Amino acid sequence: MDVPFSWQVAKLLVSVGVVLGLSLVAERASPRVAGLLSGYPLGTAIALFFIGLEISPAFAAEGAVHTLAGFSATLALTGGYWLCGRRDGVVGMLRGSLGGIGAWLIVALLLTRFDFNRLEGSLVTLVAIAGFLWLYRHIPDSRAARRGGFSWAALGSRALLAAAIIFLITGLAHAIPAAWAGVLAAFPVTMFPFLIILHLSHGAAPVATVIKHYPAGLGSLLCYALTVSLTYTNLGLALGTAAGFVAATLWLLAWTRIQTWRLRKRSLETPRSEDRPSPHTMAKTADSPNNPSP
Q1: Which of 12, 141, 184, 210 makes the best surface tag, with the fewest CB within 10 Å?
Q2: Which long-range contacts (CB under 8 A, 24 or more apart) does 2-8 make?
Q3: How is the chain split among helix, strand and coil, in percent rounded to 5?
Q4: pTM for the full model?
Q5: Is residue 50 within 8 Å of 166, Cβ to Cβ?
Q6: Cα(39)–Cα(22) distance, rounded to whole angstroms?
Q7: Do the beta carbons of residue 25 and residue 143 sit within 8 Å?
Q8: pLDDT digits (tens, 9 = 90+) for 39-84
Q9: What span, in angstroms and rounded, lies between the C-alpha atoms of 193 and 123?
């Protein structure tokens, strides 16, 4: 099928806009927030929508079932990047990228050998999420220090990289089975270029923070892929995509509320330093004539 030029332009504009927006969020908010939003269905939504538009909604729905398991390959990418990209600068970015892509390829190729249903695909990624949350539990949170903002040249080049990945995934979908297309759609189209931007601009520490919080955000991606796998055929692309975003947003809001409640509870359980008597105060109290020794 020949893809209309207007669809290609729309694909380019949406891909570039999403990467730029995510980068600005990390600059103005925090890598923790950006890590959660990196798990929001951005690149996957773009890929599945255009696969459905260019081929068929039924093909995209079938692929979305395998996308559910494909997110575990995305987690492998973050693990490979974190392990290999701990140095600042270009060297750290290149090592992290190679390690991440290598880990993704190994797990993705393994996943394509299985015929998953919705439950099995979801369980595979849920187990992976739990494992990587445990693995990343000791990574310290680090805020991206302001250095006059991101370079727009770097932003543009990485945004174009995200667009190129989208074009590659949707192009390959015309020649491969739906299961393989679904696993490809799980590739972190927007998050991976964003890690490169953040690494070059602010170093390895904020990148590690984004990676630490990324598994928590994957819950929204699971909700999205599961929803569109059920709705694309019956509701069509537009309504199915809208339903997917509603499900993903509700999950992200619920997770954020839970995290806020846990932090508040933890702060209430931890005594404030000013409420604790200092050793000097305790010594004065012990020596006071109103408090004689036994």
Answers
A1: 141
A2: 3/54, 7/50, 7/53, 7/54, 8/167
A3: 80, 0, 20
A4: 0.78
A5: yes
A6: 11
A7: no
A8: 678 788 889 999 999 999 999 999 999 999 999 999 999 999 999 9
A9: 27
Question: What's the token pair of residue 218?
Answer: 């994957």
Q: Tell me, what amino acid is at 163?
A: A
CA 156 from centre of chain: 20
Neighbours of 185 (CB within 10 A): 29
pLDDT tens across 183-234, in order?
999 998 878 887 888 888 888 888 998 898 888 778 888 999 999 999 999 9
Cα–Cα distance list, 54 to 8, 71, 272 (Å)? 10, 23, 59
Q: CA-to-CA distance for 113 and 93, rounded, in angstroms?
A: 31
What is the greatest pairwise CA distance in the chain? 94
Whether 71 and 125 have beta carbons less than 8 Å apart is answered as yes
Tokens 């909604």 -> residue: 57
Q: Cα dist. 266→214, 243, 260 in Å?
A: 22, 35, 10
Alpha-carbon gap, residue 126 to 219, rounded angstroms: 8
Cα–Cα distance for residue pair 278/90, rounded to 1 Å = 48
Alpha carbon of residue 16 to chain centroid: 17
Residue ranges of domains in the chain: 5-287
